[in-house]
Design brief:
single chain, 244 residues, alpha/beta, 6 helices, elongated
Length: 244
């Protein structure tokens, strides 16, 4: 069971955000409790006894006091994930960094809200050792150390582990942002490849070779340079350029 909270001053906005997120979670079979608040005072009064896991709110609401309440909620629940709305002319506040992970909705649309709500849920599910993704009808959890690489294909990402090959809908840039804080061993070698360095046995200017024998192409010199810097004193073999 996951705890959701919504804090918006306007009833129409609160109703829309709550209903769409509930619909999204129901479709994915996610059980959730829901609390709604209209101002910072109501939110502050309840966080000590019922702190949410995911908080949806207007970061500029109640003259900025909702942000202050969200920071207080973050102190109560270190894993709190924020999904916020803001005006186009909003200037980031230094306190926003205290709310990480924080996702800013580009617009209040059903499509964006469902996407960000799912992303927030995956973030809450994950711990330092695991990565979660959705494949209908369930969420799948894998150990980060078992992941060999991610490969993107449009909006779909393939995840290749020690014993499976799966596909889920998410951009590789988002996957990279989620997994880097968990494990510093993942390296970008191509716009379509994110590789676990633990599985690299050798590399050249053009390819990396995995311990399984698979070869993945390196697309940019800066990726190769980063590999070179990473493996300079590691014993990983650097090979001559491949010719095809």
């Amino acid at each position: 069971m996951i705890n959701l909270a919504f804090c918006y001053e306007l009833n129409d906005e609160l109703r829309f955000m709550k209903q769409e997120v509930i619909n999204c979670f129901q479709q994915k079979g996610i059980a959730a409790t829901v609390k709604c608040y209209h101002n910072a005072y109501e939110l502050l009064r309840c966080i000590n006894c019922n702190c949410p896991d995911i908080l949806f709110y207007d970061i500029e609401g109640d003259n900025g006091l909702i942000r202050e309440a969200a920071v207080a909620a973050k102190k109560e629940n270190k894993k709190l994930v924020s999904i916020v709305t803001q005006r186009r002319d909003y200037v980031p506040n230094i306190k926003d960094t205290l709310l990480e992970p924080i996702f800013v909705l580009p617009e209040k649309s059903r499509r964006h809200l469902w996407s960000y709500a799912s992303l927030a849920y995956e973030t809450v599910l994950d711990d330092e050792d695991s990565f979660s993704y959705y494949v209908r009808p369930d969420y799948v959890h894998v150990f980060v150390e078992d992941i060999k690489y991610f490969a993107s294909e449009g909006r779909r990402t393939h995840i290749v582990t020690s014993d499976c090959h799966d596909t889920f809908y998410q951009k590789l840039d988002v996957v990279e942002r989620l997994i880097r804080p968990k494990n510093g061993h993942f390296l970008r070698i191509h716009k379509s490849y994110l590789v676990n360095a633990r599985y690299i046995s050798s590399y050249s200017r053009d390819f990396v070779t995995l311990t399984t024998g698979e070869k993945l192409r390196i697309s940019r010199y800066e990726y190769y340079k980063a590999l070179n810097n990473r493996f300079r004193n590691s014993g990983i073999r650097r090979c001559p350029r491949y010719t095809e």
